[in-house]
Amino acid sequence: MTDQPLSTTARLTEEITALRRWLEEAALPLWWEAGAAKPDGGFHERVGQDGRPILGDDRRARVQPRQAYCYAAAGENGWGGDWKRALDQGLSWFDRVYRLESGLYGNLANASGKLIDPSFDLYNQAFALFAAAQTAKVLPERKGEMRERALLILSLLKAQYAHPVQGFEEDNPPRYPLCSNPHMHLFEAMLAWEKVDLSGPWTAVADEIADLAMSRFIDQGNGGLREFFDKDWMPASGEDGRIMEPGHQFEWAWLLTRWGLLRNSFDAVKAAKRLFEIAESHGICPRRKVAVMSLLDDFSPHDRLARFWPQTEWLKAAIRLASVTEGEERHRYLTSALRAVVAIQPFLDTQIRGLWFDKWPDDAPMIEEPAPASTFYHIVCAIYEADAVLKALKSKTAEPR
Predict the structure, then answer these.
(1) Using CA atoms, how far apart are residues 29 and 321, in angstroms rounded to an integer?
(2) For position 2, what pLDDT does the model report?
(3) Is 152 helix (H, G, I), strand (E, B) or coil?
(4) Torsion angle of C-alpha atoms 282, 286, 292, 297, degrees rounded to 10
(5) CA–CA dist 127, 90 (Å, integer)
(6) Percent of the chain with pLDDT strictly greater than 90
(7) Which of 77, 139, 291, 297 is buried most, with the most CB atoms less than 10 Å from its CB?
């Protein structure tokens, strides 16, 4: 009797189990031991392929709450390492170094902890909100503190940076182009807060961003999501207004599927499926089998560089769409999720387990350079999302009829 081939779900489960093992046995310990800037606080921007941190880098504000989130998520998922200390390592330094008197956060500090760029970036505020939600979730004793912080940030954004139509400005006074990307992470943060605090203002903001995405960010003709806009949320002039990033098509597909399920919105799930279709059909290099950086609005290639993070978003979107579909359609998304796992593997083929490569040019081998800490958030989200969805699907199919 010959062995039967594994089903797509079983193969995917094996792959995600292996990725989770890599994460918890190698990556989380390495980025705590080498990636944390002890004893001063915070996390380094990069770790070299020799496993040593790059000490002189200036540090972007966004990296600190993202790393804090990674360890909070690991703790929530049962990782036995020192996740509470790691969470505090990122969050306390973020507060001490970047937090302004207003309650918002600056943009860039040097390695010694001096704020060298206090300018506003909506992206940084989104990750402050996101990390606060995850902290409130895993440390109930800090929920009140985190909720007050998040309410203050959101109230300041509404008071000082609200766009007259919908969403938020890039600065005050306004500067252009307006961008969809920080709204995507703010959307993610609002959905995270919804899970923690049903009574807060998060649902209304999430709904506003979802509407903005479906009415302005997404092209009403071809269904693709643009990156850059003018003051009226119309596509920016020139080439910038034509850019559509496959990684963000996947990431918005993941978020709109989640939101659509919460709000019982068929339109949101339909829009998500179209975003996924565009990214998968036009944004995957046929030779390297990886998602590239950007297309133009006719879906022709714009930037053929492949970076690590879009592959993780491909996995998240595929697995989430599989959870809201059935039969052959679900099988197609699960098969695509397997393709995404295959796309991830070359970026993890490093000499030291727990590191990654970030950039793969179209006409050259993978670039050997230090691993950026900012990618860790994408990796952690993708692995735990895929693991949770697969377990839920297995539980669902195991239920008696």
Answers:
(1) 31
(2) 44
(3) helix
(4) -20
(5) 12
(6) 96
(7) 291
